[in-house]
Amino acid sequence: SFFQAALHCPNSGEVHGRLPKPVAENLNPESKGNLKELLLTMLEHEMEMRTFMEKVGRITPWGTYAVMALCVATFAWATAAGGTENTFVLLRFGANYPPLTQGASQWWRLLGATFMHIGFVHLLVNMYSLNVVGPALETFIGNLRYLAIYTLAGLSGSLSSVYFGGGHVSAGASGAIFGLFGASVALGMRHRDKIP
Predict the structure, then answer these.
(1) CB 172 within 8 A of CB 146
(2) What is the dihedral of CA 12, 13, 17, 22, to 10 degrees?
(3) What are the backbone angles phi and psi of residue 96, rounded to the nearest 5°?
(4) DSSP labels for the chain?
(5) pLDDT mean over 172-191
(6) Number of Cβ within a 10 Å radius of residue 130
(7) What is the pTM of this model?
């Protein structure tokens, strides 16, 4: 890189080997020292970034892609069955509805609702948001931890809808996605020294 070339130049270890000649000639010893320190810092950061990217590059975010594929497939199936804005279709495909989820003990709806979406715009916005936060988070924490966070956040969002949603039909991956954003912020703060 430029930083390595500047530090390891042929002129007896001087730091201005690749700098324009007029600039190099006007550097005093103090400036040379400051420049060398700056170049070392920038080189260290470049190496940290390269190591970090190589590490996260080893993990394929298949969890995110699997969730997105399942959401799209569920939406397509429900659309063919009568439309995702039809209440009866939504309930048939696992939408969250307190009288059924809690009243009839159909607790599987807490998770099923996270893969169902009400209308194309709802699906589009959630899949875009998931694609923004999902791959980066998953490559940093690993596939299984990522899916665990997605599941727990989705279940928490569905439970909130049951107890605080006013008894309405609800569906969507929003709760899970908000959980992923929250996890990203928390991990970013906790591991700020490890992320270049």
Answers:
(1) no
(2) -80
(3) -85, 125
(4) -HHHHHHT-TTTT-TTTTS-HHHHHT--HHHHHHHHHHHHHHHHHHHHHHHHHHHHTTS--HHHHHHHHHHHHHHHHHHHTT-TT-HHHHHHTT-B-HHHHTTT--TTHHHHGGG--SSHHHHHHHHHHHHHHHHHHHHHH-HHHHHHHHHHHHHHHHHHHHHHSTT--B--SHHHHHHHHHHHHHHHHHTTTT--
(5) 91
(6) 21
(7) 0.70
In 3D space, the residue among 81, 163, 67, 76 whose CA is nearest the CA of residue 111 turns out to be 67
Residue 196 tokens read as 């270049």
Per-residue pLDDT, averaged over 147-169, amounts to: 93
Residue 18 has pLDDT above 60, yes or no: no
139 Cβ neighbours under 8 A, 6+ residues apart: 56, 57, 59, 60, 61
